[in-house]
Task: inverse folding
């Protein structure tokens, strides 16, 4: 390393080495080695400026390696495997029957139209593209919903689902200090074994430092306290409805209850319409705030309306609701980072105030959101021919996943002579299926059968073709019966 690295830092006689971010790293970040950080710098003060000269060792020496992302780890291992029958069921993105990535035709058309029109690349306002914000709220709540007509929804374009959740988390932290968010167990991005304490994927010794839990880390990073409600019942590979209700009831009044609007990730297990009503009853009784993460609208069932039914039912009860949307899956706009955060308020005045504060939080975080995906969504929804085409393509994608789900169930049922009931596969919805396989069984799936998946037993049916269902069924049956 060159010895002439200069840095400008305010001269403070008592603290000549002013690399605050490194020296004073918070211990719970888990990536900063305090002992190693101050071995390398000599500082000379010239009036108001400190010249900091690095000698031999990088000033970033004390930063330890973060564990790899669990999903990318699965994909890397898949790439390195040369077996002809290998399958990548870790990926949370739609694949064709040939297992190739898919760009929707309607997106290609919208792209072409935008190109012909000659898009400018000016900044969007902080809240995003007005035409997008209008249609995204209409898609979620229904165009005729009174909350839209009464202007009671604060909608801000976010950086896809993740960024929209993060914005809402920052909002909760700022305006509801100390309020808790309740998160389903398990939830999105959480690949630890359900029965174990430490994370199997990122190998972090303690859960608070674990990187493999996106919902929880979003709230951790925003400084919002969270706890879990029971959701998955390993005995039935179904919903632990009683546990869920009991935990929501037991949460401190006024908590934010994070709900997956449809196609729960990672389990694929959704409450029935009757169960949704009971969940809404309890949330209402306890004065909690329902906070929906709806990343699969239209992609789960093929119908935008059916997949938004849970959100709309809460809104129809007159409840104030938060809802984060994503267009990664239903329009295949993964890399465009297009989504929104919606806050349904009880008055238009409150909605205007909430929106102003969301913008205030967004401005120093990322200033304003990207324009291209927003224009694609707005143009598709605003044009009835394109909108119909989008709906048809969503139905096609959801239909392919449903077909694969049925074929997998048929293959499991006909090949497995043990009498085991595999019908839970059919009860799940969306791109994921929880197989109920444990870590050792998942290891067998990968090591013996070249099937790549997360170690919690989740498989992405979007990465499966009809042609490979029988092979997968053989792998699951072998792992289930022959590995303890
Ligand atoms: C439940 C859930 N929420 C949010 C997201 C966010 O996705 P994105 O940030 O790509 O919109 C995902 C993506 O897999 C998800 O499964």
Result:
């Amino acid at each position: 390393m060159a010895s002439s690295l200069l840095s400008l830092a305010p001269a403070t006689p008592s603290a000549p080495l002013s690399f605050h971010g490194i020296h004073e790293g918070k211990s719970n970040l888990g990536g900063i080695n305090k002992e190693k950080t101050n071995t390398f710098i000599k500082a000379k003060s010239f009036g108001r400026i400190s010249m900091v000269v690095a000698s031999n060792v990088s000033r970033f020496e004390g930063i330890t390696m973060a564990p790899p992302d669990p999903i990318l780890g699965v994909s890397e291992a898949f790439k390195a495997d040369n077996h002809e029958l290998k399958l990548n069921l870790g990926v949370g993105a739609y694949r064709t029957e040939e297992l190739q990535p898919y760009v929707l035709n309607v997106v290609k058309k919208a792209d072409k139209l935008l190109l012909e029109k000659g898009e400018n690349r000016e900044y969007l306002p902080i809240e995003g593209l007005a035409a997008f914000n209008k249609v995204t709220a209409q898609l979620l709540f229904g165009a005729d919903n009174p909350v839209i007509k009464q202007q009671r929804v604060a909608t801000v374009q976010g950086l896809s689902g993740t960024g929209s959740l993060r914005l809402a988390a920052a909002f909760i932290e700022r305006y509801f200090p100390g309020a808790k968010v309740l998160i389903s167990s398990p939830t999105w991005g959480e690949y630890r074994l359900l029965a174990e304490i430490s994370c199997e994927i990122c190998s972090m010794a303690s859960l608070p430092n674990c990187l493999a839990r996106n919902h929880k880390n979003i709230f951790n990073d925003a400084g919002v306290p969270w706890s879990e409600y029971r959701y998955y019942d390993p005995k039935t590979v179904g919903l632990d409805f009683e546990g869920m209700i009991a935990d929501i009831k037991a949460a401190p009044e006024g908590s934010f209850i994070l709900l997956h609007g449809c196609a729960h990730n990672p389990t694929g297990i959704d409450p029935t319409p009757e169960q949704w009503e009971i969940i809404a009853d309890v949330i209402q009784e306890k004065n909690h705030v329902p906070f929906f993460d709806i990343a699969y609208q239209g992609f789960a069932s093929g119908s935008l309306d059916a997949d938004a039914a849970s959100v709309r039912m809460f809104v129809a009860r007159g409840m104030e609701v938060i809802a984060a949307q994503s267009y990664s899956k239903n329009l295949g706009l993964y890399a465009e980072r297009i989504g929104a955060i919606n806050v349904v308020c009880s008055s238009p005045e409150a909605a205007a105030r909430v929106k102003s504060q969301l913008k205030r939080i967004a401005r120093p975080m990322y200033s304003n959101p990207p324009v291209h995906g927003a224009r694609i969504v707005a143009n598709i929804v605003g044009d009835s021919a394109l909108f119909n085409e989008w709906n048809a393509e969503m139905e096609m994608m959801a239909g392919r996943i449903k077909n694969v789900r049925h074929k997998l169930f048929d293959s499991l049922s006909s090949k497995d002579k043990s009498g085991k009931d595999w019908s839970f596969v059919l009860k799940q919805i969306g791109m994921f299926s929880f197989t109920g396989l444990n870590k050792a069984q998942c290891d067998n799936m990968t090591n013996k059968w070249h099937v790549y998946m997360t170690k919690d037993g989740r498989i992405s049916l979007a990465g499966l073709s009809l042609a490979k269902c029988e092979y997968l069924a053989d792998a699951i049956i072998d792992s289930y019966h022959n590995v303890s």
